[in-house]
Design goal:
180 residues; alpha/beta; three-stranded antiparallel β-sheet; 6 helices; 30% helix; globular
């Protein structure tokens, strides 16, 4: 997702400097932003405020996206735990360039629903999400249907707390049908 605070020539790296988060481009080394909190927080708060303003908070569950490189990751999660009741967390592994296994220590003990990106890159491997789900206490929604890998979908089918979404899959479906 395009977010001004973490986008330059490429998705930026998040670095810790004292009690701040420095967002730096890995290619040109330009400092994009210096923040006191996760770069997605202001967008998350806009989302929840809009939901509350329209009185839809009884039926809409917001998934707050948290950058997986955030050096204050657990503190950011605690911010949402301390201030909101009905929510989940979204992790975009490709943009963050981290796998779910690399941040699992911050998630143990939680029962929040998680929405995790899956893909072909090394950070988004469905196998990593499957292994994580086997030990996680809450429900997990794997985005992009494990890239429709039949091998992974069969494993997912046997894991009680792991689900996949099916949108948008038209291009993947056409590829599978073409192979059949």
């Amino acid at each position: 997702p395009y977010v001004r605070e973490i986008t330059c020539c490429d998705s930026t790296n998040l670095l810790r400097k004292d009690n701040r988060i420095i967002s730096q481009c890995p290619k040109c080394k330009k400092i994009i932003s210096v923040l006191k909190h996760d770069p997605y927080r202001k967008y998350n708060l806009k989302l929840i405020n809009e939901i509350k303003k329209k009185r839809l908070d009884k039926k809409i569950i917001p998934f707050f996206i948290v950058h997986m490189q955030n050096p204050f990751l657990r503190e950011e999660i605690n911010f949402y735990l301390d201030n909101y009741d009905n929510f989940g967390l979204k992790f975009h592994t490709f943009v963050s360039r981290k796998s779910i296994g690399q941040i699992k220590k911050y998630l143990w003990g939680l029962k929040l629903p998680l929405f995790i990106h899956s893909g072909h890159d090394k950070f988004s491997n469905p196998k990593d999400i499957i292994n994580f789900a086997k030990k996680y206490n809450g429900n997990i929604l794997m985005a992009h249907s494990a890239r429709l890998s039949i091998k992974h979908l069969k494993k997912i089918n046997s894991i009680k707390n792991l689900f996949v979404d099916t949108s948008p899959l038209t291009s993947f479906y056409r590829k599978i049908k073409a192979k059949e």
